[in-house]
Amino acid sequence: MNKEVDVLLSNPYLATLAFFAVAVIALVVFLTIFELVTKYDDWAEIKKGNLSVAMATGGKIFGICNLFRFAILNNDTMIHSLIWAGYGFILLLVAYFIFEFLTPYFKIDEEIKNDNKAVGLLSMMISISLSYVVGACVT
């Protein structure tokens, strides 16, 4: 089975399609997990025009995709790329909880839900920045 998959993935068009499909599916799964840990409904808030939620969610999307970028560039197989991207996602999730913990004066989720653009922007930048830090460590 692995031999057939290797032959298919040796074609750059098929490899790109395969990595794209896996990354999109993983993005949906990872965003669903983020949705479960936030205290607001991301997509309902975005539909209402909450720019802070859109920025925070956009940062998560960028961060997750950036992790995949590094994982794909630095690994030979799909499974290794997925493992590294998954590990990076766990670290982004941990960073989310650390960010919440390190701001005792206000609750991050409440501020983002209330459309505090400064907090939404900061949340976005943390997700993006840490994805580069984690990505640099991918081997």
From TrEMBL:
Keyword terms, alphabetized: Cell membrane, Membrane, Transmembrane, Transmembrane helix
Residues making up the signal peptide according to the UniProt record: none
Bilayer topology annotation: Multi-pass membrane protein
Pfam families cross-referenced by the UniProt entry: DUF350
Annotated localization: Cell membrane
TM region(s), chain numbering: 12-37, 49-72, 84-106, 118-135
Main location: membrane
InterPro entries, alphabetized: DUF350
UniProt keyword Transmembrane present: yes
Family: Belongs to the UPF0719 family.
Protein name stated in the entry: DUF350 domain-containing protein
Organism phylogeny: Bacteria, Bacillati, Bacillota, Bacilli, Bacillales
